[in-house]
Amino acid sequence: MKMENSSPFFQEVQDWLSGLPVNFLSEFNDFSENHFLKIDSTKGRTLNIFLKKSSDFLESVNDELVNHSPDSEAFQVVVIWEDQWHTKQRIIKSRLKALLGISERIPARLTMVRRLDRPTASHFLQENHLQDAVVSKYKYGLYLPKKHFRVLANPTQADELLVAVATFARPRVFERPDGPHRSFELVRFANLLNTTVVGGLNKLLSHFIKSHQPDDLMTYADLEWSSGRSYQKLGFASQGDTPPQEFWVDPTTMDRYYPHRLPNGISHENARQQGFVKIKNAGSRKFVKNFHPQTPRN
After folding, report:
1. SS3 string of 36-67?
2. Residue 290 is inside which H or E element, if any?
3. Which of the chain's ends, N or C, has fewer CB atoms near its CB within 10 Å?
4. Dihedral angle computed from the Cα positions of residues 215, 220, 226 and 231, in that order, rounded to the nearest 10 degrees
5. Around Cβ 207, how many Cβ atoms within 10 Å?
6. Whole-angstrom Cα distance, residue 279 to residue 249?
7. Which residues, in sequence order, are CB contacts of 154 under 8 Å at separation 6+?
8. How far apart are the first and last CA of the chain?
9. Which distant-in-sequence residues (6+ apart) come within 8 Å of 130 by Cβ?
10. What share of the chain is helix, strand, coil (3-state, %, to 5)?
11. CA-to-CA distance for 113 and 203, rounded, in angstroms?
12. Is residue 58's pLDDT more than 70?
């Protein structure tokens, strides 16, 4: 399906999707210069994809478009920005295939949990997670032993394969009437590109909870990719949404910068004059799982 007068970005995404086992339920439409595509896969998963050109000075993702999806596991809204398609295309393709149910599936029961060092975790997240790796106190991974490589379409020659990683921040301690309360945060989780470790997040969380005995565990769902239903299935409760995050994009390199991490010579005040584009994402949804709720006062 050729889109008349479309940008190369829109057409490139369309062409790649056309090579997957999916059906196009509607063509691209124009919503305030956003392009929209609705598809479903042979696995019964429906995706509503919004494509946003980072070079259009689009200030934010339209909340009505992003958050109108019904509360159904088979219905998903995704936002793909032009700059991320350019810089992290392999990761975006992998996540789309996972959401469509057509990625390679690895049972978590075949894997082993192991503590990771910082370089191993950082490298894995850099290659498999859309967001930058951040410093985390605790890092765990799931390894698939060679004896189970039969589940892989293209086995490696290694003795084992790291297939999922989760990282956690050091605890924050709050004083409560019934004693100290230790709150941990799940900072990052990612599967190996083009795979889904079925039950992988649950296995990593269970190991972390057993090892560290948190009073609660919190995390955030990126609203451009998820409403957080997977966390709710694991016993997390929604605690509200956080505001959209602001970024500056260099339209020449398509590199994305936080406002406090702009290149030398570029500031929030002069970034637009230097050709940078300000964008805002859809924000995040906070989730918390309590293990030892606070005892009410008498």
Report:
1. EEEEEECCCCEEEEEEECHHHCCCCCCHHHHC
2. strand 284-290
3. C
4. 0
5. 16
6. 7
7. none
8. 67
9. 84, 88, 91, 92, 95, 222, 225
10. 25, 35, 35
11. 8
12. no
What are the backbone dihedrals phi and psi of residue 240, each rounded to the nearest 5 degrees, phi first?
105, 170
- Report phi then psi at 283, rounded to 5: 85, -170
- For residue 52, the one-letter residue type is K
Which uninterrupted H or E stretch holds 204? helix 200-212
> How far is the C-alpha of 8 from the C-alpha of 257, rounded, in Å?
23
C-alpha Rg value of the chain to the nearest Å: 21
The DSSP secondary structure of 75-109, one letter per residue, reads EEEEEEEHHHHHHSHHHHHHHHHHHTT-SEEEEGG
For residue 95, the one-letter residue type is R
Of 64 and 77, the one with more pLDDT: 77
- Type of residue found at 200: G
Q: Which residues contact 64 (CB under 8 A, 6 or more apart)?
A: none
**What's the DSSP call for residue 117?**
-
Residue position matching structure tokens 């970034």 = 271
pLDDT of residue 216: 96
Position 170, amino acid: R
Please state the rounded mean pLDDT for residues 116-128.
Answer: 97
Contact at 8 Å (CB) between 227 and 221? yes
The pLDDT score that the predictor gives to residue 61 is 53
